[in-house]
Amino acid sequence: MTDAAATEYETDQRILEFVQLREVPRYNSARILVPGENDNRKSVSDDKQTFSCSEQRADSDSPSLVVDKLLVVNKPFDKPSNTSRTRTRTRIDRLSTNRPRWLPTRTTKTWGITGSELNRLSAAVRFMKLDCHSSRTRLWLLTTDSDTPRFLIAAIWKRITRLQTVFRLPPYSVITFEGRNGLHAHIVFIGTSEIARRLKASKQFGGVIDVRRVTDPHGLFKYLAKERTPQADYKRRHMLGGRIRGSHHLPGGGDRVRLSRALERDAIEAGYVRPWQRTNAKRKPDGSRGRGNGRMR
User: Which of 13, 45, 46, 140 could form a disulfide with 191 if both were Cys (CB 3.0 to 4.6 A apart)?
Assistant: First the structure.
């Protein structure tokens, strides 16, 4: 081998060594892409978590044990919230099957006037007194005779509302049904002496009614509350006095205290009366309510 060839050979060997040294970082960078022991463990966990999520999508009812285990391992001091979630969901499901508490409820009883109806009657009378601000408008009481049919009571009530509109008065009135000695009603309304005169002069029902001015609202309230239930008498006896003992059945049933539409709307909006679910009177065995086709309010 000549000197030139030896020199060329040595040069090639140095170049090869230099290239090999430059290739080492490339080899190491490629080796970093290969997962190590810790990285391999993490990727297996990720695969398990992904697999558990796919299983959870297939069957949403079966909980993922792998995910729960990973949560416990990563956060050992966190309290499990599955119990509270189950309790909350169970409570929501139980409440959804029942009637919501904030909706209006029925306030009637078959054996007498209830405490809710007494509160409604008292609040309605107090609200109507706010509009009796002149000597011309006063509170009046109309009482029907015993065994007065419901269709005639409905006609009397409608006539009162019509006359109030004619005389430009608020169409406010409250009716109380009583069943003792036969069905009859007491209607408290805002009116004038002319309205009372026209009601008495009516050919349809003038002979079965009695109209008079209300001079003692508290005494009137005590009189209308005489057929209250024993439950309504509790803690009210010192204000209302004694009650008529026994069960006071109302023919046909339904609400014993009812408000006119305008009074019900305005009194509820003003916060005097609480909303309630109406209970209409039952129909007769033949399916009719009487001569009137209108629906009792």
Answer: 140
Same domain (yes/no): 163, 237: yes
Range of 90's domain? 3-97
93 and 119 assigned to the same domain: no
**C-beta of residue 250 within 8 angstroms of C-beta of residue 110:** yes
Q: Which two tokens stand for residue 284?
A: 């007769």
Nearest to 243 by CA among 256, 260, 230, 258: 230
- In-domain check, residue 283: no
Over its length of 297 residues, how does the chain's per-residue pLDDT go in tens digits? 566 666 667 777 776 676 565 554 444 444 444 445 555 554 445 555 444 444 544 444 444 433 343 333 344 434 444 444 444 444 444 444 455 555 678 888 888 999 899 999 999 999 999 988 877 889 999 999 999 999 999 999 999 999 999 999 999 999 999 988 899 999 999 999 999 999 999 999 999 999 999 999 989 998 998 888 888 888 787 777 778 788 888 988 889 999 999 999 999 999 999 999 888 888 664 444 544 444 444
Whether residue 50 sits in one domain with residue 7: yes
138-144 and 209-213 strand pairing: antiparallel
